[in-house]
Design a protein that fits this description.
The chain has four helices and six strands. It has 175 residues and is of the alpha+beta class. The chain has a domain of 117 residues: Nucleic acid-binding proteins (OB fold (Dihydrolipoamide Acetyltransferase, E2P), Beta Barrel). Helix 3 crosses helix 4.
């Protein structure tokens, strides 16, 4: 019998005495429940030409000299999903980061579409996160290539519930 009295540790780095949650050098697939999504930051902006991250409040990309300043109305940037979430298996809880391609599976739209929807529906991010929490998922995780990244990365995600609805579908029904 498993008796898990351990508190859920949202941040594995606060507990250095423990071994890393997963030690993997190639992608690992597991089945778990989506416990929580950090709805305060679901996406980030990138240059629409080179896809490098843009700092806030600017459309001018310093990497490829994409000159957008002459024409501020044109779109020099687009949004990509970057979602921090925790997934519980029967043994442990992982905090993982999910980028655009995988996140679209759960959200059912592009980050720009989601952001546009959220502009007119202020609680969309919270509602979407709540709607996805509790979903059973098959996720493939990999160690981040960037040595400084703290979180395992979701390479792919497959919702397992037969009646699964993407977040945007749920939102369109609600609003
Ligand atoms: Zn660029």
């Amino acid at each position: 019998m498993m008796n898990s009295k351990e508190p859920i540790n949202q941040n594995s780095s606060t507990n250095p005495s423990k071994r890393p949650l997963v030690e993997i050098d190639k992608p690992t697939t597991l089945i778990g429940t989506l416990v929580a999504i950090d709805h305060t930051s679901l996406c980030y902006r990138v240059c629409s030409v080179c896809e490098k991250t843009l700092s806030d409040n600017t459309n001018a990309c310093k990497y490829c000299n994409f000159k957008n300043s002459f024409n501020p109305g044109s779109s020099g940037s687009r949004r990509l999903f970057r979602v921090l979430m925790s997934i519980a298996t029967d043994k442990q809880v992982f905090v993982v980061i999910m980028f655009d391609r995988a996140a679209r599976v759960l959200f059912g739209c592009s980050a720009d579409e989601f952001f546009d929807f959220a502009k007119t529906h202020p609680f969309a991010a919270v509602t979407a996160s709540k709607a996805l929490e509790g979903e059973m998922l098959r996720v493939t995780l990999s160690q981040p290539k960037n040595g400084n990244a703290q979180h395992l990365r979701v390479v792919s995600v497959v919702p397992l519930r037969s009646g699964f609805q993407s977040a945007i579908e749920t939102l369109r029904e609600l609003y």
